[in-house]
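Section 4.2 – Deliverable D4.2 (structural model, holo form)

The reporting period included a commitment to supply a predicted holo structure for the target in complex with adenosine-5'-triphosphate. Inputs used:
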Amino acid sequence: MAEIRSNAASVEFKNVTKIYGKSTAPAVNDISLFIEAGKLVTLLGPSGCGKTTTLRMIAGLEMVTSGQILIGGADVTRLPATDRDVSMVFQSYALFPHMTVTQNVEYGLGFSGFGKKETTERARAGLELVGLSNFGDRLPSQLSGGQQQRVAVARALVLEPQVLLFDEPLSNLDAKLRRRVREEIREIQQKLGLTVVYVTHDQEEALAVSDRIIVMNNAVIAQDGTPRELYEQPANAFVADFIGEANMFQCEVVSVEGDGATVHLGSAVLKLPARGRKSGPAKLAVRPGRLEIGEPDRPGTLPGTLEKVTYVGSHLEFVVATEFGEVFVISPDVDTAFRAGQPVSIGFPERGPVLITD
Ligand code: ATP
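Output (structure tokens):
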């Protein structure tokens, strides 16, 4: 009985640039990255930032304008798509409508030099892996969207590629199904130890499935890190704003001692990791859940007036007017005594605020 295995390999970009045709602005501008074998890495960013172009360059469906691409340490920069050991799952599934599920999965294997028996067994193992063992004789039109996507995943898996690419695989599914299929993809990836590069513009999806996220903006990498790093320590205003919500403040770094900085934000005094910043004006990002509302006039806090309190079931949302504009605060404590119109203070717990670049 055939078993689907992983031939997972690393992916590396060295100063890769892509300029399409006669356009002057690069779609991808001098990016370098390294994706470890066996990891699921997401390319995340707004429309037009260069995610799909990056994915297609790994597949060999687009050629680089300059730079180098390595898969498993081997230079594949000039190799055509057919000579790269990479499979891609598209958002449209791209199943053949006149072929059964089994025939669809077997189709790609036919070109890979496998014998009839091996092909049949691999297709069966692939369909089992995605939980569709009993659907082999159906046509794609007799399946739900989620099931069709699983067929597309099986078809890519049976080739045992070094790298598996997903281009917005869930965008045609409704919200509930999206959550389930993304968990299935993650489970299979972890079970087999596959290298997966996954494109999405949905930040929640990226946070949920990824070992690492590469955030792209305007053809460059804005930040590369684990979901937790990106959320808790955004490097710049773009990432702070794109992943989750953030309050952004103009502040003043008054001194730096070793790795620590003393920061003034109006009357509030904060001790923060310096993150390479020097003394002078700086920018600060704080997640709404990392601020705390308290009685007015507490030392070291930011004074303000409570403008709005909104109950949203699982938590409370506060809007506070301050000298820095409106500040958004979330509290899990829904039994608050604070009322709109009253003076309050905003406290900055340790590990909440982070210094960022523009
Ligand atoms: P989306 O989320 O909308 O798919 P994306 O982040 O995947 O966006 P890309 O599709 O990689 O972005 O596009 C990056 C830039 O390159 C965009 O400005 C786009 O218009 C341009 N571009 C993409 N494909 C081509 C092409 N075949 N010819 C010319 N320009 C292109």
